[in-house]
Queue: 4 jobs
Job 1
Amino acid sequence: MILVTGAAGFIGANFVLDWLTVNDEPVVNLDKLTYAGNQQNLTRLEDDRRHVFVQGDIGDSVLIERLLAEHRPRAIINFAAESHVDRSIHGPEDFIQTNVLGTFRLLEAVRAYWAGLSDSEQTAFRFLHVSTDEVYGTLMPDAPAFSETNPYQPNSPYSASKAASDHLVRAWHHTYGLPILTTNCSNNYGPYQFPEKLIPLVINNALQGKPLPIYGDGQQVRDWLYVADHCSAIRRVLEEGAPGEVYNIGGWNEMPNIRIVRTICALLDELRPNVAGPYSRLITYVKDRPGHDRRYAIDARKIERELGWKPAETFESGIRKTVQWYLNNAEWVTNVTSGAYREWVGKQYGRCKGVA
Ligand code: NAD
Ligand code: TYD
């Protein structure tokens, strides 16, 4: 079986749902259930005996030791993290706690477990650390996309904490021989993404007739990947990746934020037309994010060349599926945007009249 951390969150939940669709290997899912973790993402697995959910913290060494001894996983996939840049600007401490200290404690518990495995089990074992392209910093408009050898230049508390975790993981391989794999992926979108991130926030606000907040001039570029493609890449790296290696994952799909928002507006005009007029009327430019990285782009040639992975979805097909999913799952959105979510929106967008 495999142990997956943070799999009540956006990408982890998609990963577990896909994993149990394509094979039968059981999953232990360890998640702290922070504001971003939601068991409703896993409702489909309620009666599935292949999925065991455990609420807990990757920084809880005693719990991790117990889970490893009890379930004896052949692999660990570490999604658990604080993941939102804007929250890291308001309050970096949780990011250091989970992304740095939590990863450290998890690595230590896994190292002790791995040391007790037989030679063949040790050779087959994998620790796959899920990371981000944001660790590489920002790119000038015509600079080549990030490759695995780019230096780390993280600019936000979030990316700095993820960079620190990547360094720990690397060192645990180099020093102790732990068979680790690291993936650095670009921006994901798709079902179950918490509506604090750009794409679900824009869909949700548009449907409620609220302003669509664009930071700065909206010309910041991200490289967007449909979440199911990220999940298939992780499965590929887990099975075929070489221990100690890093694989960049991306969609070859660079786009400025304003174009993303206009695309969503056009899709909503088609799928859920509003008598008040086109959704683009709600676009509102607001104050920029401090330290906002201008451009990210992933060079995904290594994973294609060495592991034969390529994204299956185009941006056009992926964003249509995503908008349709949010239209079909209004109840999920209502449930996750109650209570604490409102406090966050008030804190982040309070200065922008009408968004909060
Ligand atoms: P998310 O915020 O939606 O989910 C994170 C999950 O981790 C939540 O379920 C939360 O409850 C859980 N968690 C947080 N702290 C924990 C702790 N201490 N112990 C156990 N569980 C804890 O994030 P996501 O977007 O699904 O991202 C998952 C991973 O992928 C993160 O490591 C992130 O850095 C990385 N990543 C995300 C993107 C993206 O676009 N979302 C892109 C590249 C990489
Ligand atoms: P986000 O989804 O927060 O991902 P990240 O910061 O990790 O790339 O933001 C994606 C881009 O959208 C980023 O350039 C910031 C911008 N953005 C806005 O313009 N308005 C918003 O309300 C949000 C949440 C993001």
Job 2
Amino acid sequence: MGLMDGKRGVIFGVANNRSIAWGIAQQLHEAGAELAFTYLNEALEKRVRPLAESLGSKIILPCDVGSDDEIAAVFTELEQQWGTIDFVVHAVAFANRGELKKPFSQASREGFSLAMDISAYSLVAMTRYALPLMPEGGSIVTMTYLGAVMAVPGYNVMGVAKAALEASVRYLAAELGPQKIRVNAVSAGPIKTLAASGVGNFNEKLRTMEERSPLRRTVSQDEVGKASLYLLSDLATGVTGEIHYVDGGFNISAE
Ligand code: NAD
């Protein structure tokens, strides 16, 4: 018996086999879950489709989370195919490279809003459209980073967007708890992915983890996947509104 036998859910955020969402997908699949996937655009579809099919997925849909209509279309399709779902994985974020590189005080109105929209508001919109498909309850997990709660050099607008994302997790959890819908975030340590390549001083962040984090090493997509699996499974039926650190979080030794 797998931990996720009989459970179905959708994963937003696979871009390639280095994506954190892919680490989560593999863990969920191994635990017996049935998965649907979304991809951002046609270029990424070429990478996402074979990955999704390798896990036996039959529902693979386009979705730009900047569009309510596209998010709604995903959940309409899931309702038609499955009726209900048990979980949603939100592993999506975006800020313009230029916006991440410049000093935070120079952030543009457009760049700030875009980071907020794609990286934070999208969780709220996704949750809204998922609700009708979770009449008996469910679990929603998003991905965050330590830069939400402390000023991490180079993280800039994304740090502010992650702070909004973490606050959204708490508000959604408080509102939806009575409906047995749990909302949590996994705060992952730095991992080399497509999105991470836009973050300034990224290699330095990896080195810091190797030298000063409690485990004295970086964490992997699989480890973030296992923590997400726990939060999405019935092992965590009493856990909601939580920011779950996979890397030791604040426990980084001072130099
Ligand atoms: P990734 O590039 O593999 O994934 C980011 C995903 O966001 C991609 O699939 C991309 O297509 C998607 N995306 C961007 N804009 C979108 C839009 N408008 N609509 C739909 N999808 C869109 O990188 P990742 O590191 O796996 O990122 C996944 C999540 O993990 C992000 O929220 C990221 O902030 C978070 N995270 C990453 C790290 C890290 O070090 N890599 C650490 C902590 C948190």
Job 3
Amino acid sequence: MKIFIDTANLDKIREVNSWGILDGVTTNPSLVAKENTDFETLVGEICKIVSGPISAEVMSETATEMVEEARKLAAINKNVVIKVPMTEEGLKATKTLAEEGIPVNMTLVFSAAQALLACKAGARYISPFVGRFDDVGEDGLRLIAEIMDILDSYDFDTEVIVASIRHPIHVTQAARMGAHIATIPYDVLKKMFNHPLTDIGIKRFKDDWAKVPKK
Ligand code: G3P
């Protein structure tokens, strides 16, 4: 499973990149709004840190405007992936951008039917939001299972980015289903490290090592 970080914060991206496990970055308008930098500069800076796909979202509502916005963002760096919302106009824009060779991450996916349409339109990635789906009493991981079932049956060149992740179990369960990518917030990535038995084990080894006679 590829691991992306879901943030626009450069310090967090640098830190997680230094762990050696980072394959890409996803941003969204809310994450960008937390940083005090204009969008294009921020995307350019992220591309300097991470050499994998970097998702940047368009804000236009018509397909024509989305495509224009996407072309400008794609010109920042060859690794920029355009995040397009799952709307009728978004589907049209995805089709056009895919034909131009600009990769699209179709976002705000909440059903297997939406995922199927995004794949048909040529989306390179689709982002089902598991946490937000759970929040409204639905089952986000079941949605991932349904989408993976569909992808297993056909030959789409589309990868699933499990998004809106709230805890490590979202990641590990999605990995068991074969989801291609998890985009994980910084705090959840930190939680994936931690296990109390690891900490206890390190302390016990350290204490015992202190008793070993030294030359
Ligand atoms: O970036 C898309 C998605 O991961 C947003 O997550 O936490 O705002 O539901 P969240």
Job 4
Amino acid sequence: MQRLTNKQIILGITGGIAAYKSAELTRLLKGAGADVRVVMTPSATEFITPLTLQALSGNPVHLHLLDAEAEAGMGHIELAKWADLVLIAPASANFMARLASGQGDDLLTTLCLATEAPICLAPAMNQAMWKDAGTQQNTEILKKRGIKLFGPGIGEQACGDTGPGRMLEPEEIANNTADQFETGSLTGKTVFITAGPTREPLDPVRYISNHSSGKMGYALAEAAVEAGAKVKLVSGPVNLPAPARMERVSVESAQEMLEASLQDLSLCDIFIAAAAVADYRPTAISEHKIKKGSEEIMELHLVKNPDIVATVASNSPKPFTVGFAAETKDVLEYARGKLEKKNLDLIIANDVSRSDIGFNSDENAVTVISATEAEELPQASKRQLANRLIEKIAFQYKAATSN
Ligand code: C5P
């Protein structure tokens, strides 16, 4: 079920007594880390209320094809594109017939026509309706189109009959759904990533900060999500939109970044510190704007900020901890020193004296250093490099935790 982490699932519910089991199915999919949006046919609402499914999925339930409000937000095309998988449970005989004939006469059938995501059905109907030649023919048509069928099961039915046509139990449907996705190198793992600069206020209008676009940290967060991880991105102020499928916690100062990083740290498997944290902050923040005086030289009193990654790594048990070392000379030597001093498992070193890479650039080149080895990753876009780095981190994490 871990393969459902971050996955975007549309759960279509059609009219049938098994619709009551869709509530449990929603809960299971959600519990396994999927984002679930429920689409109901009008007859499904006779069996279970949209409110129940809204409460369980945590998302509004979609009911109508031509709903001006929904089309302005998430209409049928957006929903079709949003889905990683469309699961219809229960799928009634009538719905299967409409799908097989390529109809688009309601939201759910239209969405199935419009989506490029895989479609899976969990049929549920009376045994005679299932055995009927029409239904069997429709089943064959749907299978030929690549649509997967989960079940139906055989057994006692709500109408008193016994035979094939029962909807599979929610647990089985959820497991079958998870099986449709591949396992990534970080499936089921929780990764915290710090990114961007911090701002240390002097007064209400001024602050001390570092150069940092946040691009490397954000690229790592996206690569970790793609590898199947649940990601918390603790971000300083940057000009980047909140990435999809992860939690972004926006912070300003190093103190705030530390607090957000330590929150729920026991859930964190891998901690990656890509933020450019200000080493010092003003000893006091002036309540009012500091006025320009007649003196030529102004003295600022600064106090050292907490080292976030070192604080994380001092925890017991600590997550697999990865830091960055941005250096202008003797890059490998300084990086090795930091690896040891901060008790890190890996450090990613980059040479920031070069103007073509690092800081605000879209490209970077790094060396990945552990206690025993160093490997250079050549210059590439931050996104490509992030994919390679996440694979390296996942590999080293597994090696470290398998002992
Ligand atoms: O000591 P230096 O700032 O060069 O170390 C860089 C690494 O330590 C980066 O991974 C950075 O995110 C992290 N760091 C931190 N908290 C600080 C300073 C640096 O987490 N106060």
